[in-house]
């Protein structure tokens, strides 16, 4: 199959590379010439484990290429995937579809024969029908179909998720479009990975409902964690106990500083707005958004207490600022709420993150970026573990404590425990929900 991927952001690039590894001929298109130049030079503009090697392999095979020329890339394609950004629209919480619709119109003018226009971006229910209208208006003579194919990739494990998915969701309106999508995902079907073929609206809703449910699990355990702190329970034991119930499952039950990233914040916000627009309020989702914001601010107060009530003049070492490990993504990371509160309160903040510097430098002004956690802990008043990178999971706690002015730790990912921290020389240790 000949596939065109519009957009070389996280979703588009990973999807394009993986489709080429399936054996398809893939052209990835982006308007940013600097990004295309990087890709043609073999450099990956995002951090995703294993992506650089897989990309190089398929470029070398001749199945994968990159261009800014959309018209030539679309010409003759069996399927054109739209994988552009859908950020939260300023002021009303809706997903901004400006880039999606602009891409659809441009694709319409470039197509020379039948093809399926596939929305890979996360879009509100009804968007694919609007895409169809945009294309029909631009090219009344064009023979085409639209399809919805939401992504379910976890940053840091995206390649494995694409190659071995829990399921692939495809929304279509015609048997012809279904046949094209079946052929694209045939390598997965042959390995017995489930492909769910449904209507457009259901496919669009599956994506939002899935992310909202996962965000709800995270927020639920964070509320339970707050209660555990008051009653003397250990949220890790509680999570283990309830997660062994097959009806609940143990994933997304890890207490922490709140969810962030490219999906959960904007998708819960968009789903809440969709509900309001249709007079069917999504009360649980609205509560999840509100509680998650509160969790981040509760973490700030936890840190303030460890600094004797004031950040002013304190040296605080923050380990990890990306929203999760194994990614450089800073979108809606808890650090974007917590670190500015430290700086604004007068703290001198040192940050260590294996991949966060590139994006974080602009997003977190006023901090000192360092590479070694032990050097960053020198004469510090507080160490905060904010992202559970492997580099921070096996620290020599005694060495860290010895270097600090006042050995105190806020372990917001519950990597360690109070007993080991105290044994290592920390005078104060606070986890989440323990």
TrEMBL record:
Keywords: NAD, Oxidoreductase
Catalytic EC class: oxidoreductase
Cross-referenced Pfam families: UDPG_MGDP_dh, UDPG_MGDP_dh_C, UDPG_MGDP_dh_N
Enzyme Commission number: 1.1.1.22
Molecular-function annotations in GO: NAD binding; oxidoreductase activity, acting on the CH-OH group of donors, NAD or NADP as acceptor
Catalytic activity: UDP-alpha-D-glucose + 2 NAD(+) + H2O = UDP-alpha-D-glucuronate + 2 NADH + 3 H(+)
InterPro entries, per the entry: UDP-Glc/GDP-Man, UDP-Glc/GDP-Man_DH_C, UDP-Glc/GDP-Man_DH_dimer, UDP-Glc/GDP-Man_DH_N, UDPglc_DH_bac
Domain UDP-glucose/GDP-mannose dehydrogenase C-terminal: 317-418
SMART domains listed in its UniProt record: UDPG_MGDP_dh_C
Protein family: Belongs to the UDP-glucose/GDP-mannose dehydrogenase family.
NCBIfam families membership: NDP-sugDHase
Name of the featured protein: UDP-glucose 6-dehydrogenase
Organism: Gymnodinialimonas ceratoperidinii
Organism lineage: Bacteria, Pseudomonadati, Pseudomonadota, Alphaproteobacteria, Rhodobacterales
């Amino acid at each position: 199959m000949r596939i065109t991927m519009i957009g070389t952001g996280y979703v588009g690039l990973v999807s394009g590379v993986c489709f080429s590894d399936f054996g398809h001929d893939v052209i990835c298109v982006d308007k940013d010439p600097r990004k295309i130049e990087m890709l043609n030079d073999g450099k990956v503009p995002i951090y995703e484990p294993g992506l650089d090697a897989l990309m190089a392999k398929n470029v070398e095979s001749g199945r994968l290429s990159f261009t800014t020329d959309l018209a030539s890339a679309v010409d003759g394609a069996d399927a054109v995937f739209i994988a552009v950004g859908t950020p939260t629209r300023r002021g009303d919480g809706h997903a901004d579809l400006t880039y999606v619709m602009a891409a659809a119109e441009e694709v319409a003018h470039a197509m020379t024969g039948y093809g399926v226009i596939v929305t890979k971006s996360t879009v509100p229910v009804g968007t694919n029908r609007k895409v169809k209208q945009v294309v029909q208006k631009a090219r009344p003579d064009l023979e085409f179909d639209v399809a919805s194919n939401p992504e379910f990739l976890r940053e840091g494990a995206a390649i494995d998720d694409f190659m071995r998915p829990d399921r692939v969701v495809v929304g279509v309106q015609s048997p012809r479009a279904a046949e094209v999508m079946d052929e694209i995902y045939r390598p997965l079907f042959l390995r017995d990975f489930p492909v769910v073929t449904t209507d457009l609206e259901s496919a669009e809703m599956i994506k939002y409902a899935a992310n909202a449910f996962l965000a709800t699990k995270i927020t639920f355990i964070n509320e339970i964690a707050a209660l555990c702190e008051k009653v003397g329970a250990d949220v890790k034991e509680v999570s283990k106990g309830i997660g062994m119930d097959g009806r609940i499952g143990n994933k997304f039950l890890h207490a922490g500083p709140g969810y962030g990233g490219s999906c959960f914040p904007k998708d819960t916000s968009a789903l809440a707005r969709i509900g309001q627009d249709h007079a069917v309020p999504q009360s649980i989702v609205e509560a999840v958004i509100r509680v998650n914001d509160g969790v981040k601010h509760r973490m700030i107060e936890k840190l303030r207490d460890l600094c004797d009530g004031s950040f002013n003049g304190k040296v605080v070492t923050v380990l990890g600022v990306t929203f999760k490990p194994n990614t450089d993504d800073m979108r809606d990371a808890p650090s974007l709420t917590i670190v500015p509160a430290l700086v604004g309160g007068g703290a001198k903040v040192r940050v260590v993150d294996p991949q966060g510097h590139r994006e974080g430098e602009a997003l977190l002004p006023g901090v000192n970026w360092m590479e070694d956690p032990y050097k960053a802990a020198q004469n510090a008043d507080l160490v905060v573990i904010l992202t559970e990178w492997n580099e921070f999971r096996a620290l020599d706690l005694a060495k860290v404590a010895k270097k600090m002015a006042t050995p105190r730790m806020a372990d917001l990912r519950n990597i360690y425990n109070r007993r080991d921290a105290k044994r290592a020389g920390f005078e104060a240790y606070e986890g989440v929900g323990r």
